[in-house]
Specification:
Layout: H1 2-14, H2 16-38, E1 41-44, E2 49-52, H3 53-64, E3 69-70, H4 73-87, H5 93-97, H6 101-111, H7 114-120, H8 123-129, H9 139-148, H10 156-172, H11 182-193, E4 200-201, H12 205-213, H13 217-228, H14 230-238, H15 241-246, H16 253-285, H17 307-335, H18 339-357, H19 362-368, H20 372-375, H21 378-383, E5 388-390, E6 393-395, H22 397-421
Antiparallel strand pairs: 1-2, 3-4, 5-6
Helix pairs in contact: 1-16, 2-13, 2-16, 10-11, 12-16, 12-17, 13-16, 13-17, 13-18, 14-17, 16-17, 17-18, 17-22
Length: about 425
């Protein structure tokens, strides 16, 4: 059996279509991940300097790491008191609160020093102000509004909870593309209430970058589908199916060996691609912040996971999806004779669903979100209040997607083998 698997694996690897597609797409993934590092930018407002690439990463790390630690309400209140001292040393809260973002920025440029302006836009303070901030206001305007309205910064966690509840209310009332039933609403509200506080703050740039890039593993799935398409159709095209099926083990061990070799190849290629997507950011950003809660990256996330756990969940989900598409490709390969048709079907399911998914809502949004580009996006993984209900049972999106693709794998792989075994030789 082992020799048969090795023989079938060699057949997959040595096909010209496999070599070209897999090498080109692997090189593309490497290029994209390196370009992702090189295009990083950061601005030092105090020195009026711009950084790119590794220098930008190092600057961002140097900004955040000094503020690492547990965010207790007392610490938040003390740090925000210092922030307000600097922010309102040259202007009053009343002057800032009703100005536009641009006008407030111009006023600060006239009255505050470069060092003070840099401190007022520091990522740490933007994070502390995030429960009350809006897109239309700058951080110091948010702070001004809090002073005017006598909002206690120590209520940071209560404000985060209220922000999440507000988003849930919008989903329940149908104001967003994600609509929720009352059961789903209660499910997410319970998860928000269960988030452990106070949580720690720190630098997790590498894990953040991986979450934003893990969707590129979809291209690895395209290469895998190209490589597996000829596993059975190749035998039909070469008219060797009659010979193979007539041999002693042609309808037994040989078919199983083909499936095992296909899954083995897909696993190895996926792991190599995942190693690039995960490894390059960790080498450049560092692996620090692995133990930090996901709320450091997405403050309103309803999940009790760390930054690194979110990444491994994403990679694990990607692997299950890949297995599902490998099984589907093998099933199509066993049932169809046109390799082009199989390729068109798999590419549409892999890529086109991602282009359409963001423009849908309701039921179609839930269906299209199960496909790789959408299901491996940061929103699906850690921030969206998207769920799948089956009566009184509610599934998180990652669990729902995992179950769906696990079922696809379990169904398609045996069906592919059975279809080829029962194939009628023409």
């Amino acid at each position: 059996m082992g020799s048969l698997v090795c023989f079938e694996l060699k057949k997959i690897i040595t096909r010209k279509s496999t070599l070209v597609s897999c090498l080109v797409i692997f090189a593309l993934i490497c290029f994209v991940m390196c370009a992702n590092i090189l295009q990083m930018v950061a601005h030092n407002a105090e020195a009026n300097e711009d950084y790119t690439g590794l220098a930008a990463i190092e600057y961002e790390r140097s900004q955040i790491e000094p503020h690492a630690g547990t965010l207790t309400p007392e610490r938040i209140a003390g740090d925000m008191a210092h922030y307000n001292e600097v922010a309102f040393a040259s202007v009053t809260p009343e002057e800032l609160v009703n100005l536009s973002r641009e006008s407030a920025s111009e006023l600060l440029e006239e009255r505050a020093s470069a060092a003070d302006r840099a401190m007022l836009s520091h990522p740490y303070y933007r994070f502390l102000l995030s429960p009350w901030s809006t897109r239309e206001t700058s951080p110091y305007q948010t702070a001004a509004g809090m002073v005017v309205n006598d909002v206690d910064p120590a209520s940071f966690y209560e404000a985060l909870n209220a922000q999440g509840s507000g988003q849930l209310d919008a989903c329940l009332e149908g104001y967003t593309s994600v609509s929720l039933t009352q059961i789903e609403y209660d499910f997410w509200q319970a998860k928000i209430d269960e988030i452990a506080t106070p949580f720690s703050y720190g630098y997790a740039g590498g894990w953040d970058d991986i979450l934003n890039c893990v969707g590129f593993l979809t291209f690895a799935m395209v290469a895998i589908c190209i490589a597996l398409t000829p596993v059975f159709t190749g035998e039909y095209a070469a008219r060797t199916d009659a010979v193979l099926l007539a041999t002693r083990h042609g309808r037994g061990r040989l078919v199983v060996a083909k499936v095992i070799a296909a899954v083995g190849f897909a696993t190895i290629y996926f792991l190599l691609s995942a190693g690039v997507v995960v490894g390059i950011p960790l080498m450049c950003f560092g692996a620090g912040g692995a133990e930090l809660p996901i709320q450091v990256l997405v403050p309103t996330s309803p999940y009790n996971v760390t930054a690194s756990q979110a990444v491994w969940i994403a990679v694990g989900l990607g692997y299950l999806i890949m297995l599902g598409f490998a099984g589907l490709t093998l099933l199509l390969s066993a049932r169809m004779r046109s390799q082009i048709a199989i390729f068109a079907i798999t590419v549409c399911l892999l890529l086109i669903t991602g282009l359409v998914g963001s423009a849908t809502s309701g039921f179609m949004l839930r269906v299209l979100s199960l496909f790789p580009i959408n299901s491996m996006s940061p929103g699906f993984l850690v921030s969206q209040y998207l769920s799948y209900a089956a009566g009184p049972v509610v599934f998180e999106p990652v669990i729902a997607a995992s179950l769906v693709w696990a079922c696809v794998t379990v169904l398609c792989l045996p069906l592919a083998a059975i279809s080829f075994r029962r194939h009628q030789v023409v």
